[in-house]
Amino acid sequence: MDIQSAKASFFLATTKASACRNFYEGVLGLDLVEEDDFAVVYQLAGAELRISKVPQFTPQPFTVLDWQVEDILAMRAHLVSKGVEPLVFDGMGQDENRIWTVPGTNIRILWFKDPDENVLSVSQRA
């Protein structure tokens, strides 16, 4: 048995399924695979994103999902044009575009939240 080659699913939670769909489809441009009484489902590059419908939850204070992009500045511009507000974390030393460079690396990260306050990000290895 080889679990490494098995398809993976990622789970988030939503208490606002309609706002969730508007964000993931209208803002991020994901294609809906299905929606039922339990989840909203999207297909990512080789993985499934299941956003579980829950009556309540507490969002985590850290990144729960990241997309690795080729051009973080272009992606930032796209997200901002769709109404996304990039996050600023005190003490992180983010630049004027609210992008953080991981010390000692060429990895750059831009954080933002979905309607349920899940912390998402896009990152680029320059």
UniProtKB/TrEMBL annotation:
InterPro entries: Glyas_Bleomycin-R_OHBP_Dase, Glyas_Fos-R_dOase_dom, VOC_core. Transmembrane segments: none annotated. Coiled coil: none annotated. Residues 6-125 form the VOC domain. It comes from the Bacteria. This is Glyoxalase. It comes from Henriciella pelagia. The lineage of its organism: Bacteria, Pseudomonadati, Pseudomonadota, Alphaproteobacteria, Hyphomonadales.
